[in-house]
Amino acid sequence: MNDADLRSEIARLKKEKDAVILVHNYQIGPIHEIADFLGDSLGLARQAAETDKSMILFCGVRFMAETAKILSPRKTVLLPRREATCPMAEMADVETLRTVKAGHPDAKVVTYVNSTAEVKAESDVCCTSANAVDVVKHLDAETVIFTPDRNLASYVQRFTDKTIILWDGYCYVHNRFDPEEVKRAKEAYPDAVLMVHPECRPEVIDLADEVLSTGGMARVARENPAQIFLVATEEGMLYRLQKENPGKTFLSAGSSKVCRGMKATRLEDVHRALAREQYEITLPDTVIDRARLALERMLHYA
Ligand code: 13P
Ligand code: SF4
Predict the structure, then answer these.
(1) Which atom of ligand 2 is nearest to 63's Cα?
(2) Measured from the CB, is residue 213 less than 6 Å from ligand 1?
(3) Which CATH superfamily is domain 3-85+262-282 in?
(4) Domain ranges of the chain
């Protein structure tokens, strides 16, 4: 089938199955085009919690589809490619987290949504890149164990006097932005606005004009009258920014950085996923119930 046929078959199956298609900003262009909702982790989690459809097809990575399942446990949630995973989510495990908690009995655990369902279930509250600062500020604790992203945790530390205990996880995509390449990009485009994702290293964040989730980048690109933007995040974001702001220029702040898990999903996979109802996300009820508390607290705080 060509792309046009795939798109119309996907539309037909979506109706037949009463499905909604949620798409993360890092997906490839043809997947953006079939989205019912396109957004960042927070926006998509809200959509998953609120949808009245009976099936959610998630074009993103596994932790995002798991988050959708936790927030809407009675719905069928599909991830079109099994290998669409986020390595950072595997960097925190329940056993080590329990050990760290035992060493800090007064601390509360804030877990970035880029984590397994089991680690969420062991946490007090979740956060995304869009609300991490607010979540930590609102939390009723002076010591916070923040898993798994050390870069996001140290970014949050800039805004609070609370003690944040860092976990040694990171995103292999954002961590590759090197301050020297970002400085060179700034020198080449001195009038550009530099938008940096908070998963980048602190030395890169120091160079930023704006530190934003991918949803925040879409908003600033629209609202800021600048003509050129340098963007330090996964390259898929550039597709959306350029499409929504055709008169402006968006460039990667250094070499282009690609997330393998985010790039795994093609139109063929979405079509197959809807036709065969694969690959369904299943999680134990006990994990869902505890992880949902942490996610719902996040949605309530920020
Ligand atoms: P956003 O929530 O900002 O879209 O980030 C998700 C992510 O995986 C960043 O690497
Ligand atoms: Fe995970 Fe990084 Fe890919 Fe985001 S860009 S899904 S944090 S590996």
Answers:
(1) 6
(2) yes
(3) NadA-like (3.40.50.10800)
(4) 3-85+262-282, 89-171+289-301, 174-252
